[in-house]
Amino acid sequence: MYFRVPFEQAVESTIEPRPKNEGTEVPTLGMRRKEQLTIKQKKLVEALAVAKNQTEAGQMAGYATKLATSNALNRIRVNAPEVLEQLGFSLEVVIDKYLRPGLEAKQTKFFAHQGKVVGTRNVINWNARHRYLDMCFKITGAYQHAAKRSTGRLRSIYAQPGAY
Q1: Strand residues in the chain grouped as ranges (E)
Q2: What is the CATH number of domain 36-87?
Q3: pLDDT tens for each residue of 6-24
Q4: C-alpha span between 158 and 164 (Å, rounded)
Q5: Between the N and C ends of the chain, which has fewer C-beta atoms within 10 Å?
Q6: For residue 72, which of 56, 85, 87, 61 has the smallest C-alpha distance?
Q7: 64-102 confidence digits (pLDDT tens)
Q8: Residues forming beta bridges with residue 124, ordered by sequence position
Q9: Where are the chain's structural domains?
Q10: What phi, psi does 35 have (nearest 5°)?
Q11: H helix intervals, 29-65
Q12: How confident is the model at residue 145, as a pLDDT?
């Protein structure tokens, strides 16, 4: 059974001011506070280290779809800089201690004759340097800045096998 009540009377009777708790923070609607990783997110991070790709890591961690995995990774990325900073891995430290040695990588080439090593030579490891430089660009966001600077003339090239 419904009763008709004027709007002002209905609003006044149903809305009561809530007492504010001193020292506690209540997140507002639509705002998400930074929280620690869930068990499933921790499994995803561990799976990323051993999986071939992001989708496989998501399946290993228990995520049903690619979208669910992607959303979980985006939530993890929000907290990542803060967590790394707490562990002592600031951007400067990571670049100086871990990326710089990779940018100066060398490898030893061995020369053999009849199964015996007759000489060695240290040469620049271009493959390793390329990977470390690529990682450095990804960390600093240089690829995104380059994409914004592009003129937009050439977006993509489509090749058809056997067309030539």
Answers
A1: 106-113, 116-124
A2: 1.10.10
A3: 545 544 444 455 555 554 4
A4: 13
A5: N
A6: 61
A7: 999 999 999 888 888 777 777 877 888 888 888 888 898
A8: 106
A9: 36-87, 90-149
A10: -125, 170
A11: 39-50, 54-61
A12: 62
